[in-house]
Design brief:
Two copies of one chain form a homodimer.
Chain A (H helix, E strand, L loop, with lengths): L24 H15 L11 H8 L3 H13 L3 E4 L5 E4 L4 H14 L4 H20 L4 H13 L7 H20 L4 H16 L1 H7 L4 H20 L2 H31 L1
Antiparallel strand pairs in A: 1-2
The structure holds a DNA duplex (21 and 21 nucleotides).
Chain lengths: 262, 262
DNA sequence: CCCAATTTGTTCGTATGTATC
DNA sequence: AGATACATACGAACAAATTGG
């Protein structure tokens, strides 16, 4: 049985299948370097040949090689360092970069609060259940420390904002303990959207006494259920927590619009 | 005296750090152009100033400007065209590019079939229900045409492969009719992972008579439920469909490993 | 169909900044 | 502190692609 196929995965197929148009030199080199990374199984920390050698290897000029390396850097595949022993080093894309890039894609689509919570209602219970299997006392401590941030009335708008962010961070911490990288990423991306969406930012600056208290109750109950290892209960609590959070967000959004009309 | 801090380590925030330390000229220009696009509300089709003008505007060299534009191109924000009237045109990132970039992030994580299906079991029922509200007769026709592709015994390995791809395309078509862009994207990304993961590719080349027939039954029932507008039934069928598909995939994976050991 | 204008794409030479020893 | 190795940036020239006459 063939185990490792030479035509492995994720090769930037994207749009044009190469047979059509003459591809630009830069893009050819980008793909060539990508293949080199894949085929040689290069790990983070490994260094690519330096510019000088790449120039020779691909018979291209400095500028072209630089553009290719820049492309790889933007894609989060390499990091460029100056100085002796410097060069292009293979890295794993950071979650932040992945989210930025995906954010560019969704920028054109108009996301609503309901859209995001439709996802969260489905995913957060799953990550919570998944995280339950891996979380330890240190993890619980982190969760409780996060709750502390918003377990009191905010003094000013700035602290109120910090509390809203921390409320989302609670779920980010939970997701950290899931071993399903894709699930965790998608969950955390939803959280990031909630942090960045303009409509949400407008909502967060308003006072909202009810939401905070109820949210904490859900989260405390969640921690307890996780400690008890009660998978069904964990999911049930998170479902209710999300449904309640969505309700609050939508109500606040409607209230804001109402105020705007007056 | 200003001194460069040595601990400029890999926090790699990915997004706009405030005017902090010495950033590279290229990245400054990238952000400046990004802001220009945002602030002016530039839409796809709108043209940025040409290289010549950008060189003047930012007092940078041609190479630097080109690197900045290349960065924006890789991020899927602009498209570069040569010739008279050419230049950098604002575009919306294609779904394919977004998936490629996200694929680079997940490349380092080791995804399992179970991980992906954990997502699919949660998301596919939601997209199906969401799509139900928008799909029309043309959409149903597309779904039925897709089923035709694998509604018979494959003659050879190549057709078998095409059938596996079409089975996934069925769900891609469903997702097209959802108006929740994020939900649809995440669903289709799962489908893409199933198309590309090496372990899945190995599975698809094997004959698997049972899965095909049962899958079609689910999908035909799904179409019927969608036509009837029965939201709960749509979700229920899709849940079962996904659970069954996962079961089959895991069984085939186990069988393959068994064969591999022998 | 070719020609010419326009604009990006690529090359070379050189200089500067930066990190390591 | 100085030498070295490397990326980063500049500028001028040339090549290729696209559009319109």
């Amino acid at each position: 049985m063939q185990k490792t196929e030479p035509r492995s995965v994720s090769l930037e197929s994207g749009d044009v299948p190469a047979a059509r148009r003459l591809r630009k030199r830069t893009d050819e080199i980008v793909d060539a370097i990508k293949r080199t990374i894949m085929d040689h199984g290069l790990e983070p920390g490994d260094r690519l040949p330096q510019e000088k050698d790449l120039i020779e290897q691909y018979s291209a000029s400095k500028g072209t090689i630089r553009e290719a390396l820049k492309s790889l850097e933007v894609q989060g595949l390499v990091r460029l360092r100056t100085g002796p022993g410097g060069g292009a080093f293979v890295v794993h894309m950071s979650e932040g970069r992945a989210m930025s890039l995906l954010g560019n894609y969704l920028f054109s689509k108009k996301m609503t609060i309901a859209d995001i919570y439709e996802l969260r209602k489905a995913l957060e219970p799953l990550v919570a259940a998944s995280a339950m299997d891996n979380i330890d006392e240190a993890g619980f401590a982190r969760l409780e420390a996060t709750i502390e941030i918003y377990d009191h009335q905010a003094r000013d708008a700035e602290e109120r904002w910090a509390q809203r962010m921390a409320e989302l961070d609670f779920h980010a911490v939970v997701a950290e303990y899931s071993d399903n990288a894709l699930l965790a990423f998608q969950c955390r991306f939803c959280q990031r959207l909630l942090k960045e969406l303009a409509v949400c930012r407008d909502i967060y600056v308003q006072p909202q006494p009810v939401m905070r208290q109820r949210g904490i109750e859900y989260q405390r109950a969640l921690i307890e259920a996780m400690r008890a290892g009660d998978r069904d209960k964990v999911q049930q609590i998170m479902r209710e927590h999300m449904a309640h959070a969505e309700e609050q967000m939508l109500a606040l959004e409607a209230e804001m619009e109402q105020r705007f009309i007056e």
